[in-house]
Hints:
Distance between the termini: 25 Å
Largest sheet: 7 strands, mixed
Radius of gyration: 24 Å
CATH class of the largest domain: Alpha Beta
Strand content: 25-35%
Oligomer: single chain
Shape: elongated
Amino acid sequence: MTQYDIAIVGGGAAGLMAAARCVGSALNVILVEKNRECGKKILITGKGRCNITNISPWREFQSHIHPDKGFVKNAFHHFSNTDVVNFIESTGLQCKEERGNRIFPVTDRSHDVRDHIVKYINKGGVKISCGTEVTSITKSDDKYVINMVAPGGDDISVLASKVILTTGGLSYPTTGSTGDGYTFAKAFGHTVVDTFPSLTALKPKEIDPRLEGLLLKNIKMDLWVNGSVVQSEFGETLFTSGGIEGALGFRVSRKGVKGLINGQKVELSIDLKPAVEEDDVKVRVGELVKEMGGFKIKKILPKLMPLQMVESFAEMNPDLREGNLAARIKDWRFRIVGYVGYERCVITAGGVSLDEISRKTMESKLSSGLYFAGEVMDLDGDTGGYNLQIAFSTGALAADSAIKSLAI
């Protein structure tokens, strides 16, 4: 039975970074990925451009992490967003900064990010075994036994002194995220916090197909749960066939989905004119009424909102009149009744309990030599490069901790 010092299970962002950190360690390391290629989810990030990280300083970055921002602090400072950029550029791929402190490759190609990391790992002597599915992990004395199905269909097993679980969550199962890591973690006594889709589209009770493709910029969005505002965001949102998403829709989706799961009343309120007070909007409406020679809704609305949404807005607010138009523009309300599931959500909320993982090393508190990194943990971030940074930071810390432990 082949023996390795470190076995990394899962070849996504966290697994690839863990493997990259093992380069130059002189250890016998294997990265096992069940897909035929590593990093399939990386390829779809940033709409195929790969939002590598967010360059915001920690004091700002931490506000975008859920549910425990403090858990990531050590990992972030151990391998920061600046470190990620420096690493990517050291592989020969230059990066660029865009609006919102987001970092992308200058080529705007996710494939280039994945390929450069894989090339670095291969040149560094770390073995990558793709098309190999781990079926179970057990422990015998101080070694882990990893049982797998090889590409040809044969059952094989290897031994490892350390195991790093980077199997992802449940989002986009076509990329290989099917919850395997939860099963492996439970086998060692770990608790898996209930999972649910996050950074996903929220589905209103009523939505007009004519709104599909409408991008609203510079708006304010409030998330209401059981009659109270629980989150307010400014920016842009997008109407799609799945519902309301885009930057704002994704940001509020975590609490929105959780509210729906808990049986609570969930609503979204869109303020189309957040920089203008309602009284000022009323004045403008009054001016338009005089200009049009009466309250002619289909002539007034195009002056106040994008033409694409005029008919939909009017039909969704059949009682519009001069006296309430300003209020509706400042509070376009949608009752949320559903959401897009794991098949197309960006990230999985929930996962292996953080209480059972050392935040200083990413090592299991229940099984010595077992480490976790990335989405498999009960850890997720907002859209904007935060989730890849979490994966890279925790993957780096897990690998470095395992390497250090083996040197003792």
